[in-house]
Structures are given as C-alpha cells and as structure tokens.
Amino acid sequence: MHWLEEGPDDAPAVVLIHGLGGDAQFWGVEQAALARHFRVLAVDLRGSGLSPGTVEAFSIEDLARDIESMLDEAGISSTHVIGFSMGGVVAQALAVASPQRIDRLVLAATFAVVNPQARLFLQAIGSVYRDGLSARQLYELVLPWLFSVAFLDDSRSAPYLAYPDEQGEEQSRDDWLSLLAALLAFDGRARLSAIRAHTLIISGDEDCLAPLAGAEELAHGIHGSVLKIVAGGHLMNVESPDEFIGQIERFLSLHRQPALA
C-alpha cells in the first residue's frame, strides 16, 4: 500500500482515507495543516493512486485490513483516522475490526450504507462507465452531485469544475468499478454500536451523495459521537476549507497533550 507521509515522526499519528475516484493527494490542504502537530499518513486505497489493484473482488473490510497492514509497516500501534465519503466507510470498518488501534475517528461526507437515491445514481454511473464511458465523461456526470448550487453558479469556482487537461495516470476502469462494488455492498448499520472511538461526524448542508440523514444515522448509532454541519455539498472541504479543517483541528486538539517545558 502506498501512502504520503508528512509531519514529525514522534508526533501522534493521523491516517487520512480518501473517497471513490480519489487518492492520497485529495488531502493536500488538510495534510499540510495537520502536519504541524501530527504525523500524517494519507493513503492510496487499493487500486487508487500508486497502490496496485487486484483482479479478484474485495470488500470494504479488505480495504480496512490493507490499512492495518500499513500501520504495522509504519510501526504505528495507535492512530487517529479521518475518512471522507467511501474513506469514511473504510474508517468505520477499521474502527470495528481494530478498536484498540483507533483513538479519535472523523467521518466526513459519509454514511453507514449508501441510500436508495445515491445507490440508483451510482449503479447507473457504474453501468455506463463499464460500457465504455470515458473518465472525462464520468467526471462530468458526477460533477453536479459534488457541490452546492451556489458553488456551481459562482464564476470563481470554474477551476474546480473543469476536467484537468494535464490529468496524470488515470485509475483503471476495473479498479474504479471494483471499489464501487465494495462500497455498494457495504452495510455497517448493525455494527455502529461497536465503534468505541471518540467520533466526530461532519456533513455538508447541501450534500446530495451523502445527505444529512445518513450523518444523523451515524450519530445516532455511534455512542457519544458529535455531529457538525458545514456549508457546502459533498466536497464541503473545497467549498468551506477553513470551517472543515477547523472542525477537525479542534476535535483532535482535545486529545493533544501540551509539550513539556
């Protein structure tokens, strides 16, 4: 498993888990901010970024086990975990499977199970992508679901709405579809009560892919969790970056011990 690491080696660890179609570089802004106080590891999930995919099918639980192996390789026994969208689903599976390794948990723009509306959309997207849709066309179809109406209507948002002309090495079609299949097969609702980590849930107030109802279900199921609502759509970290990272920093700072004099 490939990851990008930043911050002091002797600082508390934070693992960042991206969503479907993303990779470790999704976290560029957040990783730089958190690295002032933490050892931050942004992972490439299986079949994403520089982490190779597999021919055989896999589950969300398999992705969580990949991260456990990465923690072993990095020599990390305990860590905070921040998961975004599908990364939040992987983070839930990790928190259930290895409660002793997770200190604080942040679940952003995510859910315990894909809701029926988003499921129909993602199944349709997967079907047309399997039949030959290009990566650019896929991006253009998903784009309206990623941001709020106000953000889409703002001329200053144009750089975020265009498919990058210098797109690097693309994720393979098979890898993307395998990750989608794992996401759609996951239902963690019955296991939410098994999550013991102190948990912060962040939801965008206009998120269409992971609506507030899903965040409320997480908050209801995870004992003692805190729900915060941030302005924006699914990518509220892009629309409201200061508010998003501020919520995370405040939550993690509750744990951080002051340096010895």
TrEMBL record:
Keywords: Hydrolase. PANTHER family: AB HYDROLASE-1 DOMAIN-CONTAINING PROTEIN, HYDROLASE, ALPHA/BETA FOLD FAMILY PROTEIN. This is Alpha/beta fold hydrolase. It comes from Dyella kyungheensis. SUPFAM superfamilies: alpha/beta-Hydrolases. Gene3D superfamilies: alpha/beta hydrolase. InterPro entries: AB_hydrolase, AB_hydrolase_1, AB_hydrolase_fold. It comes from the Bacteria. GO terms for molecular function: hydrolase activity. Residues 12-241 form the AB hydrolase-1 domain.
